[in-house]
Write a structure and sequence with these properties.
five-stranded antiparallel beta sheet, Aminoglycoside phosphotransferase domain-containing protein, single chain, Aminoglycoside 3'-phosphotransferase, Chain: A, domain 2, 16% strand, 2 domains, AGP_Transferase, 333 residues, 39% helix, globular, Aminoglycoside_PTrfase
Length: 333
C-alpha cells in the first residue's frame, strides 16, 4: 500500500489518478534527515526521487533538513556545473514539506563496495581521483558567510567562527566508552582521554584562525556517491577491467559552511583511517598534487572529530567496537 503522504504529493504534482499496481516505489531512506522514495510513474520514462523530511513538524528540525534549503544547495552546485540531481518540484506551500528531484542512475558506490577500504588499488585510485576533482569544485564555492550549519537560503552559517563547530569535542571525549584492548598503546582510559584532549587543543589555533566560508557537503560517504559501470555487467562480476565512473553526488541535508578539508576528514573516517584514499584524492584536489603538513594534520583531526562524535553516542557493542577501531587507526597512522 502506497504511503499516504507520498500519494498526496504525487497526486498534487502530477494531477493524475494513481493506481498502486502501476507504481514502482523503492524506499531508500537511510539517515535521520529524509524519507527518500525512488518512484517510477507509468507516464514518465525516468524515475523521480521524492524527499520528505522526517522531522519537518518537530521544533528541533534542523534548518538544512527543510526541502527549500536542500534545493538551494543543489541549485548552487548545479550552477557551478557539478554532477547533482535536477530540481523537479518544491513544495510551494508555507509548510516546505517535500521536494522532487531527478533520479541519478545506476548505483550507490556502497552497492559496489559495501566495505570501501577493501576495493582494489586500481578502483580506489580511479574513483577517488574523480572524487578529488569534484570536491575541488565544490569547495571553491563560497557560502553566504559564517560557519557551521546553514540557516538561510543565502547559505549563511550559524556560527561566527569555525572553532565553535567543534566546541563539544571535550565533552564527547569525556562521554565516550574506550576499549583499551584496542588502544593498547595506552595504559589507562584517562591517559587516552588526555592524549585526545591534547590533539583537540593543538588544533584549536588553526580552527580559530580559519576564515574561508566554503560549501561543504559534510556527508560524502559512499551511500551518497552515484556511479555507473562499463561494460554493463552484474556488480558481482566487477573486476579491475571494469570502468567505474562517478555520475552524481546526492543528499545535501547535512551541508555546512566551513573548511573543505572537513569533507576529506569525513571520508577518512568512513574508510576506517586508510590514508591511501586521501592520497588518491590529493592528486586531483590540490594544485601541486600534495597536501601540506598542516592540511594533512587537519584532515586527520576532522576524521577524529567525526569519529569521536559517533563514539560518544554509540549504544551498541557493534558501534562501540567499530568506532574504537577507527579511532585507533587514526591514532597510529
Amino acid at each position: 500500500m502506497i504511503n499516504q503522504r507520498l500519494y498526496e504529493i504525487l497526486l498534487k504534482e502530477y494531477k493524475i489518478k494513481i493506481d498502486d499496481r502501476e507504481l514502482e516505489i523503492k524506499d531508500c531512506s537511510k539517515g535521520c534527515d529524509n524519507n527518500v522514495y525512488v518512484v517510477k510513474l507509468p507516464h514518465l520514462v525516468e524515475r523521480i526521487v521524492v524527499r520528505i523530511p522526517k522531522l519537518i513538524n518537530d521544533d528541533d528540525c534542523p534548518v538544512m533538513h527543510r526541502p527549500s534549503m536542500q534545493a538551494s544547495v543543489m541549485k548552487k552546485l548545479s550552477d557551478n556545473l557539478l554532477p547533482v540531481p535536477s530540481l523537479i518540484a518544491l513544495d510551494s506551500e508555507s509548510e516546505d514539506t517535500y521536494l522532487i528531484e531527478s533520479y541519478t542512475p545506476r548505483y550507490d558506490l556502497s552497492q559496489l563496495f559495501p566495505i570501501p577500504y577493501q576495493m582494489s588499488t586500481k578502483h580506489r585510485e580511479s574513483i577517488y581521483q574523480q572524487l578529488g576533482a569534484i570536491l575541488k569544485k565544490i569547495h571553491s564555492i563560497p557560502t553566504g558567510g559564517g560557519f557551521g550549519s546553514l540557516i538561510d537560503l543565502s547559505l549563511h552559517g550559524e556560527l561566527n567562527n569555525w572553532l565553535d563547530y567543534f566546541k563539544d569535542i571535550p565533552n564527547q571525549i569525556a562521554d565516550s566508552n574506550f576499549d583499551l584492548t584496542i588502544h593498547k598503546q595506552f595504559s589507562t582510559v584517562d591517559q587516552l582521554k588526555e592524549h585526545l584532549l591534547e590533539w583537540y587543543n593543538e588544533s584549536t589555533e588553526y580552527l580559530k584562525n580559519y576564515k574561508q566560508s566554503q560549501l561543504v557537503h559534510a556527508d560524502l560517504c559512499s551511500n551518497n556517491i552515484r556511479v555507473d559501470i562499463t561494460p554493463n555487467i552484474n556488480i558481482d562480476q566487477i573486476d579491475d577491467n571494469t570502468n567505474i565512473s562517478i555520475i552524481g553526488i546526492i543528499d545535501f541535508a547535512d551541508a555546512i559552511s566551513g573548511d573543505g578539508l572537513y569533507d576529506l576528514g569525513r571520508i577518512l573516517s568512513h574508510v576506517h583511517g586508510d590514508w591511501s584514499f586521501i592520497e588518491s584524492i590529493e592528486k586531483t584536489y590540490t594544485n601541486n598534487s600534495t597536501f601540506t603538513a598542516s592540511e594533512k594534520n587537519m584532515i586527520k583531526f576532522y576524521a577524529f572529530s567525526f569519529c569521536i562524535w559517533l563514539l560518544s553516542i554509540s549504544d551498541t557493542d557493534y558501534d562501540l567496537l567499530k568506532y574504537n577501531k577507527i579511532l585507533n587507526n587514526l591514532l597510529i597512522k
